[in-house]
Amino acid sequence: MPIQLIPDSLDGAKIRVVGVGGGGGNIINSMVNKGIEGVEFIAVNTDAQALEISKANVKIQIGKNITKGLGTGMKDEIGMKAVEESRDALEKALAGSDMVFITAGMGGGTGTGGSPEVAHIAKSLNALVVAIVTKPFDFEGKPRMEMANQGLERLKDEVDSLIVIPNQKIFELISIETDKRSAFELANKVLYNATKGISQIITKTGEINVDFADVRTIMKDMGDAMIGTGIAEGENRAEKAALDALSNPLLDDIDIAGSKSVLVNISSNGSIKMSEIGRINQIIQGKAGEDAKYILGIVDDMDMKEDIMVTVIATGFQKAAESAKAEETEEHVNVHKPIITELPKDQKEYKELDVPAWKRRYDQININDDLSEDTPKKKEKTLDDLGFDINIEEKFLKTPGFLRRQMD
Fold first, then answer.
1. Cα(320)–Cα(36) distance, rounded to whole angstroms?
2. Residue 210 in contact with residue 297, Cβ under 8 Å?
3. Which residue in 24, 117, 111, 33 sits closest to 72, CA to CA?
4. pLDDT of 308 over the 80 cut
5. Among residues 170, 152, 171, which one has the least CA distance to residue 162?
6. pTM value?
7. Of 160, 163, 156, 143, nearest to 116 (Cα)?
8. In this model, does residue 41 exceed pLDDT 50?
9. What pLDDT digit, counting tens, does each position of 202-225 carry?
């Protein structure tokens, strides 16, 4: 797999994170508390009370006339209409964005109905749009899950890349004693790491620098995506960080092996060894496969101590699946496509396939009977010559072969 090394460059990409609905607002508050450099946060909600406690830089109440400052009542169509009503305010807030992250909890009215519409607005402003969203727990009920899945289908059509975190997978990581706040923080951490990882790739510089243009190449119009981060220190830290980045149990069952493009960013305080860089890339390239487009970035982060962080972005899973399906379909068609051989003009066509084979052979043997008298005739063998009894009863010949064998 070829490695593309990116030279140093300063990047001034404008990055905004938009939290849509109550779930999206909670995620933004968590991100603000943890801190992400070079990012502006925007909270979008129909609920005026939820916006009052938001820690976002910009707060936009949508659908004032429709909801009167209340929620959507679990109706995603109201969330859609609320965004449309407040389109001008959203366009103004998103103007000039190079990259827009959209985060939401799918299954609620505002997040499910509004996030695809916000994504559409951001795309219309030529921003790179990445959605990082959650799906409901199973115990939240079938109607909520169905609404979430329908919203995800609409969202996928509007964004460049989509990262989905099923809340149900949290149960794989917690004990029976884990409280609600701690459980939700696990999902928030994945959302935070994904957003921070991509933002850092764009804003940080280093010996081998990856800028916004490279992120756009990897993520634009790519559909389902995976992002993983791994942080490790001590012995074998490179291997541990790489493996942790590739194994995120909270992501929606996506394997890097099915990706079209992979971007890897390695962060350290400058102490990372060349052998460690080689080991990280050996692990990730080995998993991704030699056909995946691969971009590598290495940056210095003086806030880090003796640990290193590996961030992996893999995209293009849907396109890879569609390509494989197309190849499989083409192969299937080629194998089963009938081969039609055109008969020479001097042979008689046999359109009546129910004519017994012995009679068709007899007609072919005597085909010269159909030729004109001027045509030289070649002596042909007759059925008598071949040992056939031409007086055999037609009724017997119409009997299927397997029954005739039983009669013998």
1. 32
2. yes
3. 111
4. yes
5. 152
6. 0.72
7. 156
8. yes
9. 887 777 778 888 889 889 988 888
